[in-house]
Amino acid sequence: MARQIEKNTIWEIARTAGVSIATVSRAMRAETRGKVAPETLKHIEAIGKKRHYTPSLSARNLRATRFKTIGFMIPHIHNIFLSDYYSKLFCGFSNSLMGSDYRFKLVALKPYARKWDGYPFRSAEAIDAMVVEYWPTFFTPKFKVDVPCVIINDPADGIRAHFVTSDNEAGGELAARCLYEQGHECIAVLRGQEWSTDSDLRIKGFKRTMARVGTAVPNEMIFKGEYEEEDAARITERIFLEKKKVTAFFCCNDNMAFGVMRKLKQLGLRCPEDVSVVGFDDEGRASHSDPPLTTVRAMTQELGKVASEKIIALLEGKISDKEFFYKKTVLPVSLIERKSVGPVR
Amino acid sequence: MARQIEKNTIWEIARTAGVSIATVSRAMRAETRGKVAPETLKHIEAIGKKRHYTPSLSARNLRATRFKTIGFMIPHIHNIFLSDYYSKLFCGFSNSLMGSDYRFKLVALKPYARKWDGYPFRSAEAIDAMVVEYWPTFFTPKFKVDVPCVIINDPADGIRAHFVTSDNEAGGELAARCLYEQGHECIAVLRGQEWSTDSDLRIKGFKRTMARVGTAVPNEMIFKGEYEEEDAARITERIFLEKKKVTAFFCCNDNMAFGVMRKLKQLGLRCPEDVSVVGFDDEGRASHSDPPLTTVRAMTQELGKVASEKIIALLEGKISDKEFFYKKTVLPVSLIERKSVGPVR
DNA sequence: CTGTTAGCGCTTTCAT
DNA sequence: ATGAAAGCGCTAACAG
């Protein structure tokens, strides 16, 4: 019994089945199974099953230069599995992949180590395709890799990849509308790092909508943080210390919104009675916070799902290169109205 | 530029470097680099870099029968990345692996499809070792696989694997002590499925401790759920409908504790004034719930970390088979006292 | 220190 | 329908 697990090569199977390795090989793959006589097939299968034979992945891959594996490139950061965003992304991605016979492999790229253009992902990582999140820090503008690639949440032009992204601009619009409908005009906007294209787009939509109703958002009301709760708390404190008459906050992620709400409480300000807050993402905490956060929900799981579907469609030839490369799939966002927004007093 | 990515074999490099493939091979691996003359080395490296040469993983693996990859076996369930428990586990595991040159690969096993004993994981999955969670549903009692294996959170005897687990019994003890010290004697215990060894052990420790102080836990006070909030809510309702005079709940996971607290509120009962609740796990929500949940914290991230460390130690020969197989690493748990436990009135 | 050579286990023509 | 044989790209003796 134990010995059967060891060393089960195609040769062994062929020998005990009394056929050639070519026949065993054909019998083992769905695509070629038809070329084997039914009886031979049954015979080989029986032996294979009894001995727990499974073709070696490496040998197959070496021969076929096909790995049935998709690389999921992520920033080389700690605790990535604890982040709400990545959890959802993986979740959608892996759920979707489970339905196929593809596997996925997480590859943590070191953004600082080098730019990855030109790196032979296919053979070095044994992947057929890749999906990358956090693109701008990995690759130079003349992005070029040797496997088809889906880039998540970072629309860029002239890059040979497929883009899957949330409709961040529309999200900014939704946030703006929900705020000005309650009469808010003095709104502080909290954004992420300067290279954050997410924030760029969210704010673009926000500003455009505010401008349309006659309330421009001055640049000095846009504050930059690192998407962290702490940053937001600090910024909030500063704003009120300087006696700016702000009646509402639009935060480019929920984390920052939580920071604002916390600091508000510390300053003796009530939300939403005194100050309204709108977030972005709809993290798990958003519905449990005090008050529950009104926020823009991105379909993060869906993002992962679509990424996997698109890439498999390409690999399996269901869609053409034309339909894949340089194309964009934009997922809608929606406003989740909870309790952190109220009329201006 | 584009062409350089394609077809970069050891032969090409050897040819343009004017050396043999063996020399290139030696130059490419840290272990053998010393055997190459410094000048030759520099020359080869320069060419390799210029052409973005990276040895083919499949070929290497095929040759070396070593994959530098560890399989993380998980139940084939949806939304696994959303669960607090798995997130932490992965997190600890992947953080730790990032420090090494091993990768990991998630393998979703279908528990219902077949039992996996005898399946040639090594070659079929291209992994050197595996860590499995959710063991009892994957394997038959005569567990035997062809790669070293760490089993998480499922202590079992006579199995050729290494076990990494939380000290669940001690956790039960802590919960019991914290409750009886406040005078509680009528305690409802909510557990997971009958095959849940976690629950078995947690309750074992709990009962033992209660018995020691003279308060046996009757079997009819132990209620079975599926570790879900809903189950707990239903059970709680039933308990109070039947007018059982329960003053406290010990839940074998936090999820159920949240369910209890929710139902308590609905029934007009205050926590902890009227009824105390202790959970297990210390999920993220536990500190944000109302009231914040007193619970037993398992070092879940650490579990993943230790699993990876142990297995790498074995693979690298830092520890012997004797120190690995049939051995157990037990991680301590601790009581996190928050606001859901009060004195009995 | 470097080159030659024999495979690792499989897929895929090309014959038969 | 089946078999023989040529590699896929690399590593590890072995010889020099």
Layout of strands and helices, then pairs:
The structure is a homodimer of 345-residue chains.
Chain A: H1 2-5, H2 10-17, H3 21-28, H4 38-50, H5 57-64, E1 69-75, H6 84-98, E2 103-109, H7 121-126, E3 129-133, H8 135-138, E4 149-152, E5 162-166, H9 168-180, E6 187-191, H10 197-212, E7 222-224, H11 229-241, E8 248-251, H12 254-266, E9 276-281, E10 294-298, H13 300-315, H14 321-324, E11 328-331, E12 333-336
Parallel strand pairs in A: 1-2, 1-3, 3-4, 4-5, 5-11, 6-7, 6-8, 8-9, 9-10
Antiparallel strand pairs in A: 10-12
Helix pairs in contact in A: 2-3, 2-4, 6-13, 9-10, 11-12
Chain A binds a DNA duplex (16 and 16 nucleotides) through helix 3 and helix 5.
Short précis:
Chain A has helices at residues 2-5, 10-17, 21-28, 38-50, 57-64, 84-98, 121-126, 135-138, 168-180, 197-212, 229-241, 254-266, 300-315, 321-324; strands spanning 69-75, 103-109, 129-133, 149-152, 162-166, 187-191, 222-224, 248-251, 276-281, 294-298, 328-331, 333-336.
